[in-house]
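One-letter codes give the sequence; each number marks local geometry. A record appears below:


***
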Amino acid sequence: MKIHLNDSTVKKILFITLSNIGDVILTVPTLESLHQRYPNAVIDIVGDNRSKIIFKYCPYVNSFYEKDKSLGWYGILFLIKRLREEDYDLAVDLRTDVLLYFINAKKKLFKASNKFGKSIHSVEKHFLSINKIINSKPPLTNIWLSNYERELSKKIFERFSKNTILTLGLGANFEGKIWDVSNFISLAKLLKDYFDVIILVGDKKDAALSKEFISKYKGIVVDCCGHYNILETASIIKESNFYIGNDSGLGHLASAVKIKSFTIFGIGEPLRYKPWGAKAFWMQDKNYQINNIHPKVIANKIIQHLK
């Protein structure tokens, strides 16, 4: 049943998003659609400290309310107390239905039932939450960057202005999701005729992987692991020509900045959680053993997508 909310009466929206960077980016199409449907409304967001940076430069976000898991029930009660001080015209919860029962909102839209979970992509599942008010398809993911990030990445790349650049994400948050560094080295060698420079991106935990890569790869490599935050890394990826990595938030950053990407899956559910968009490609081992995937197979697929 469709719900008709008059544009002029929807002036304040609460949007409850997820935690991990990749998961949060997959909620952005729903957020963007709400903004497009109600362009004059201000939007408050509930999220985690680690996801807060994603919305730092979002022009239509009013306030960000942090859900601090480390505080347990006290943190939840404190968050509810703060939210109850506001009156919303519309509230959308993509995370947990609980908060919606305690806040003040004229209309509340709950997350889609888990019965849809394994049959559709996560972006499409989130979008089902608002299908009563928005009759369209989910747009692409997005991330908002400032002039600072753009200038920083341009400065990093200025000496490579005439080169073709490949960005690699060597890490992930679980061992079963990590393609061995030796495979990435072999892949980079196979693609050497197509890319002049390798950029390594990731956090401080990926520094050991980047050191191993640099020690064994004969070519131009710039190690950015652990040196830049999420937005700076997104801008660095945006300046490159192609991104390849494991199943992690970095692949979702690549799709959010609209460059071609290739994600290598071991365990996981790519049909539900692959980066969103026609420029995002992927491969998974049929036995979910990521290191069974041969670099030459990936290289051949990458070359096809370069054409």
Summary: The mean pLDDT is 93. The longest strand covers residues 87-93. The two ends are 45 Å apart (CA to CA). The chain has eleven helices and eleven strands.
